[in-house]
Amino acid sequence: METKALTETNTGPHAGRKEWIALGVLMLPLLLVSMDVSVLYFAIPYVSEDLTPSATQQLWILDMYGFVLAGLLITMGALGDRLGRRAVLLTGALVFGAASAPAAYAGSAEALIAVRALLGLGGAALMPSTLALIRNLFHDARRRARAVTVWTAVMTTGVSLGPVVSGLLLEHFWWGSVFLINVPAMLLLVVLVPFLVPEFRSKALDREPFDLLSAALSLAALLPVIHGVKELARHGYAPLPALGIGGGLVLGYAFVRRQKSLAHPLVDLGLLRQRAFGGAVGANLLAMFATVGMAVFFTQYLQSVLGMGPLEAALWSLVPAVGVMVMAPAGALLAQRFDRAYVMGGGFVVSACGFLWLTQIRPDSALWFTLTGGAVYAGGLVAAMTLANELALGAAPPERAGSAAAVLESGQELGGALGMAVLGSVGAAVYSRDMTATLPSGLADGDAVRETLGGASAVAAHLPEASADAVLGAARDAFTHGMSYAAVGAAVMMAGAAALSLALLRGTSASGSEAPRTSGADGAKQRVGTGSSPL
Q1: Which of 260, 295, 424, 523 has its CA 20 to 30 A from that of 5?
Q2: Is residue 152 in some structural domain?
Q3: pLDDT tens for each residue of 266-307
Q4: Which domain holds residue 235?
Q5: pTM for this one?
Q6: Which residues, in sequence order, are CB contacts of 315 under 8 Å at separation 6+?
Q7: End-to-end distance of the chain based on CA atoms, in angstroms?
Q8: How many other C-beta atoms are found inside a 10 Å radius of the C-beta of residue 256?
């Protein structure tokens, strides 16, 4: 199987029933790993009641999983290329499943933080392996495009589905149930994968020692940057997070310099210089910037402005997935007939229109109006991201698909953190300005009211009815105004992503070759046969 995978071209054998069943099995861990990013959002009040964590511990309970996941993606992707992607996938499933049971029955905040870190370790092993194995299961470009469409849709849907599953479980069970659902799914994965998914490892990389220093540098660079960006988004400027970001960037520079000096680096920098791969990573980073940055506003609007309960808001937030189900397959079909750079650019333009639609939302807007805007921007985004994922995967030589997938996903994590920080700061600044201009300076607890909509709601609960209505009305207007400005920022980023797609990705093919220079199959054959990246 290894020799076959290393010599297949873009026009290799068609995938059969076994490959499609294998894809379905691989989507199970991807769904759970992406769900675990958000599954604790509704459960955290119950966790706090049971374990009484401090404010700092509560933040680490929520964030530890995502931090470890992001920090270890590059390391786990490179390990999969060397040790075997199926082996790393199965190891990740065992770790993820084994950590889920102690997470469910954690007796202290410290124990829950520790097992959340183990869940992040397992998730980091699972995510790049699922995308990289698609490269080995589907050698034909059209079928690989469909498989990547499914992968992208499952990944993006999982984050939205986490709160829904959490809300449903918490209506009937205790908070630990949100972790226990992982156990049977991981057991099923461990049983089925050896029969359905072939192993793949690079023979050339298998003989090379794994560079532990590079792995440590990648973790040490990503963690403080992502943590610092999230802290700045939550609390505004503070010296420690800013220092962490600066230190992470310095370590990132050291990581890049080390990769240049290695014969077999963890990250192939030559691959990043390819238009097909580097452009796809950049486009995906911008897409996640807008997606995550606006998700916080969208959910809070449904709950705090429209007054929905958490579960009701989570269920309504799934409605925009209709746009994804329509746009993602349509984008894949259009890319078979037209230059995918134009299709991606069109997807980003559609997404920008959806964000601009959201600028017209008011506190009393009809629900269908809000959900339609969400469906438009989500559909355009996922359509473009699907094509970007396919380009990046096709650009990587098969023996480097694991590390390439990890770089792509690391860019998504960084884009999401930046989006939350930048768009969140824009919305918060507009909210604070509006509230300062609207409310009298002598209002009790005025700082809390001017800082967040949640703070305004908490203060209003202790005010007379007339005063509470005035405070809440002003806060909802200010929040919606801030969301409009954030939506403008997201639309601008989508316009930039469209321009980036057109500038860098015209003439690239799903095999990663550049049409003006090589014919698709010949270019892919030359690259795969040598195991190197064209510059």
Answers
A1: 260
A2: no
A3: 777 777 777 878 888 888 889 888 887 787 788 778 877 888
A4: 212-261
A5: 0.75
A6: 164, 167
A7: 28
A8: 15
